[in-house]
Amino acid sequence: MYTVRKGKKEDLPAILDLIKELALYEKAPDEVTNTLEMMEKDGFGPEPVFGFFVVEKGEEKTIVGTAIYYYRYSTWKGKRLYLEDYIITEKERGKGAGKLLFERVLAKSLEDGCTGMMWQVLDWNEPAINFYKKYGASMEEEWINCNLQSEEIRALI
């Protein structure tokens, strides 16, 4: 019923739609400022900074989910795969597509010689937390996420 494959440039419109669906679910629909042009450059330009998988449904091969990842370096652990977004469209959740996709990303981390995989989950997203707990994922509570937007950085320097 579901198949997973590496993402292609022509998948990006569907991926951006999934990203917007996730932002709506996470109560931040106005936070998505990414564009197809940015994703094409950043994923398929001369120096790609992310990769992704898609999960497709049925013979019509409708994209129902994606896992977007990149690599980060931990001075304590070495090369890590960072799962930036893991999205299954709402109507396909709980049917096996997510498990198939997540396990493909886990395998990718090993294929690429990573020492592990990292990601974030919102503390109120109980379905996702319960899903990750099935895999024995550690949930760290003592770290606080920090960020600055480019406009804020420009104002500082």
Automatic annotation (TrEMBL):
Q: Which Pfam families match?
A: Acetyltransf_1 (PF00583)
The protein's GO terms of the molecular function aspect are: N-acetyltransferase activity
Q: Which Gene3D superfamilies does this one have? A: 3.40.630.30
Q: What residue stretches are annotated with the N-acetyltransferase domain? A: 2-157
Q: Which UniProt keywords apply?
A: Acyltransferase, Transferase
The record's annotation in InterPro entries points to:
Acyl_CoA_acyltransferase (IPR016181), Diverse_Substrate_AcTransf (IPR051016), GNAT_dom (IPR000182)
Decide whether keyword Transit peptide is in the record: no
Organism's domain of life? Bacteria
**Coiled coil (residue ranges):** none
> Which family does the record assign?
Belongs to the acetyltransferase family.
Specify the protein name: GCN5-related N-acetyltransferase
> Which source organism does the UniProt entry give?
Cyclobacterium amurskyense
